[in-house]
Amino acid sequence: MSVAAVVTAAGSGSRLGADVPKALFPLAGRSLVAWAVLQVADACDDIVVTAPAAHVADVKAALAAVPELAGRPMLVIAGGAERQQSVAAAIDALFADDRTPPDIILVHDAARAFQDSDVTRAAIAAVRAGADGAIPVLEVVDTLVEATGPDGELGATVDRDGLRAVQTPQVFGAEMLHTAHRDFATARATDDAQLVRASGGKVVAVAGHESGFKVTRPSDLPLARHYATELLAKEQ
Ligand code: C5P
After folding, report:
1. What digits encode the pLDDT tens for the residues 78-137?
2. What is the atom index within ligand 1 of the atom nearest the CA of 111?
3. How much is the pLDDT for 97?
4. Does the pLDDT value for residue 236 go beyond 90?
5. Neighbours of 44 (CB within 10 A)
6. 23 neighbors 51 (Cβ within 8 angstroms)
7. How many Å apart are CA 24 and CA 31, to the nearest integer?
8. Which of 8, 142, 154, 178 is 20 to 30 A from 107 in CA distance terms?
9. Which atom in ligand 1 lies closest to the alpha carbon of residue 216?
10. Could you tell me whether strands 133-139 and 170-173 are parallel, antiparallel, or unpaired per DSSP bridges?
11. Who contacts 233 (Cβ-Cβ below 8 Å, separation ≥6)?
12. Nearest alpha carbon, ligand 1 atom 19
């Protein structure tokens, strides 16, 4: 079964406060988007990357600068206004009339550039074994409460044992994901599993990994550099 990756990298990354879009932020000699693509490339036959509309050429150049990605089938397209629209545009590109659509699509946030590749393999294996979708999850370590009301009083404490934090890559049967994005295009979802489940798909969990954290704020950068340096050392 063929596998295609959608790597979402069209966000501005304003919370990172850098002078380049987050996807282009350099870490140990490679851009964040290049690290994200490298982490999933071996598991995929085809890759579509979403880039900020004004930076499609820059993202292409950042990926072309990585010799390990040379010769990989890869398309860089302009993303949409929201993540969901970026993913939908990438899926449409994979289902374009002049291409053979993949059997399985994994959707991965470039912001989670250092996700352990075993997590990707486990999620793909779960879909190959028959699940409509498989997503990595982690136990929640913080105590959680409902947001404060208008009077400033804290909402109720939520039992964290019954909750999980969701990561990417999220892996789905390609037809299922395509249909879910088409049928729920006007819904607002922060991940793809929500759309597939709304479509009636059965999504299972696989164990996530702490390396799959989302690079969001400047304080995330030392950890991101740590993982980038560690991966680089493994290559040598
Ligand atoms: O903004 P957030 O952190 O939720 O973004 C998650 C991922 O979605 C990031 O990798 C970001 O680049 C991507 N994204 C996108 N298109 C957008 C907004 C975000 O591809 N319009």
Report:
1. 999 999 999 999 999 999 999 999 999 999 999 999 999 999 999 999 999 999 999 999
2. 10
3. 94
4. no
5. 26
6. yes
7. 5
8. 142
9. 3
10. antiparallel
11. none
12. 11
Four-residue CA torsion sign, 84, 60, 172, 39: negative
> Could you identify the residue written with the tokens 């400047």?
218
**CA 103/CA 60 separation, integer angstroms:** 25
Neighbour count for residue 234 (Cβ, 10 Å) = 7
Show the domains of the chain with their CATH numbers: 3-235 (3.90.550.10)
Using alpha carbons, select from 36, 48, 32 the residue that is nearest to residue 87.
48
- In eight-state DSSP terms, residue 19 is S
What stretches of the chain adopt beta strand conformation (E)?
Answer: 3-8, 26-27, 30-31, 46-51, 74-78, 104-109, 133-139, 144-145, 157-158, 164-166, 170-173, 203-207
Question: How many CB atoms sit inside 10 A of residue 89's CB?
Answer: 18
Query: Which atom number of ligand 1 is nearest to the Cα of residue 8?
Result: 20
Identity of residue 230: E
Contact 54, 22 (CB under 8 A): no
Residues near ligand 1 with C-beta < 6 Å? 8-11, 23, 50, 79-83, 86, 109-111, 214
Its sign, for the CA torsion 16, 67, 72, 230, is negative
SS3 204: strand
Partner residues linked to 137 by β-bridges: 166, 207
Tokens 């208008």 label which residue? Answer: 150
β-bridge mates for residue 48, sequence order: 6, 75
Tokens coding 111: 């912001």
Write out pLDDT tens, residues 35-53: 999 999 999 999 999 999 9
Q: How far apart are CA 110 and CA 218, in angstroms?
A: 16
What tokens were used for 13?
Answer: 């990354």
